């Protein structure tokens, strides 16, 4: 493992501010989300956390691709997040499920059952839900696009208003009463 510290920055997009943790050795986003830096950095394993981190300007070369993708996404290029390299630790099913999540394009949604099917294990609906819950590189791996079978929002680690804001930005209106406009 490299001894180079991870580099971090944050970017405001629809739904809130995304903290991004990037491996400067290869440019992969290794953690991100709508939480503070301590929480987001805490997504990493103890070994990864031991590497440390340093905050950098959004223009720093290591974080620039992720920052530009987030800004482009906010400006309406909804496919921009797909172009960013990501890496997270997890077993074989999680890796397949996270890859399958990235196949759910902006403006589309799927169910947990649909995600299980995309991941090649149609009966593993609970495991698909766990893959969403354990996703540590949101919104680059778009678990916000997974809804309940009835089309309602379901859960989201950063709260349903954030999930709904992302979906609305992507042109999706979830079923049921809106969360933001009660």
Overview of the structural elements:
The chain has 182 residues and is α/β, with parallel strands linked by helices. The protein folds into two domains: 6-83; 92-169, Winged helix-like DNA-binding domain superfamily/Winged helix DNA-binding domain (Arc Repressor Mutant, subunit A, Orthogonal Bundle), CATH 1.10.10. 31% of the residues lie in helices and 15% in strands. It has seven helices and six strands, in the order βββααβααβααβα. The protein has helices spanning 37-41, 46-49, 64-74, 92-101, 112-118, 125-133, 160-169; strands spanning 6-13, 16-22, 29-33, 53-55, 110-111, 146-147. The strands form two sheets. A four-stranded mixed β-sheet has the order 3-2-1-4. Strands 5-6 form a two-stranded parallel sheet. β2 (16-22) and β3 form a beta hairpin. α5 (112-118) crosses α6. The radius of gyration is 16 Å and the shape is globular. The N and C termini lie far apart (48 Å).
Topology, pairings included?
Blueprint (H helix, E strand, L loop, with lengths): L5 E8 L2 E7 L6 E5 L3 H5 L4 H4 L3 E3 L8 H11 L17 H10 L8 E2 H7 L6 H9 L12 E2 L12 H10 L13
Parallel strand pairs: 1-4, 5-6
Antiparallel strand pairs: 1-2, 2-3
